[in-house]
Amino acid sequence: MLTDTLLEDDRWQEAGLEVLAETAARATLTALDLDPDGFEIAILACDDARIAELNGDFRDKPTPTNVLSWPSEERDPEELPEPGLPGMPEELGDIAIAWETCLREAGEQDKPLSAHLTHLIVHATLHLLGYDHIRDEDATVMETLEVEILGKLGVANPY
Predict the structure, then answer these.
(1) b or e along 23-55 (b: 16 or more beta carbons within 10 Å of the residue's beta carbon)?
(2) Residue 28, CA distances (Å) to 22, 34, 58, 71, 143 in order
(3) Suppose 121 and one of 24, 32, 60, 113 were both cysteines; which one would form an S-S bond, judging by CB atoms 3.0 to 4.6 Å apart?
(4) Phi/psi of residue 2, each to 5°?
(5) How many whole angstroms separate alpha carbon 121 and alpha carbon 138?
């Protein structure tokens, strides 16, 4: 499996995050012509309190957020990573996702939780591959990729 999900909060079981995350991450790598079987992503499914702690520790913003990502190394999206050897996949990095914030956002945006979670995992996976949205041009590239990937998964344009 591409994703290794740790459910720190039991509410994630009812959302089916493990399957959603695997599907979204695989679709992201496949869209970029990368073999998902050659990579690994660790996902922490937590609550708002835990993600606020992580956000404070790593971004000096001790407040809840929907998703965080930590690439295993700095990457350039123009130079995509090589897959690892069979049985020894290349580690792309870690993702943390927060239950309460994701549930609230899905409700505010009047969309199914599964669609919102799929979008966030696609988004975070792109971050692990070096994509970002700091500059407007980069945001356009990243959002365009997200919309294309989500469309293939049957998820409506989140923008």
Answers:
(1) bbbbbbbebbebebebbbbbbbbbbbebbbebb
(2) 10, 9, 25, 15, 12
(3) 24
(4) -70, -45
(5) 18
pLDDT digits (tens, 9 = 90+) for 90-131: 999 999 999 999 999 999 999 999 999 999 999 999 999 999
**Residue 39 φ then ψ, to 5°:** -135, 165
Cα–Cα dist 65/1, whole Å: 26
Contact 66, 120 (CB under 8 A): yes
Angle CA 127–120–17, to nearest 5: 120
Structure tokens at 95: 């993702």
Phi, psi of 117 (to 5 degrees): -65, -40
pTM value > 0.90:
yes
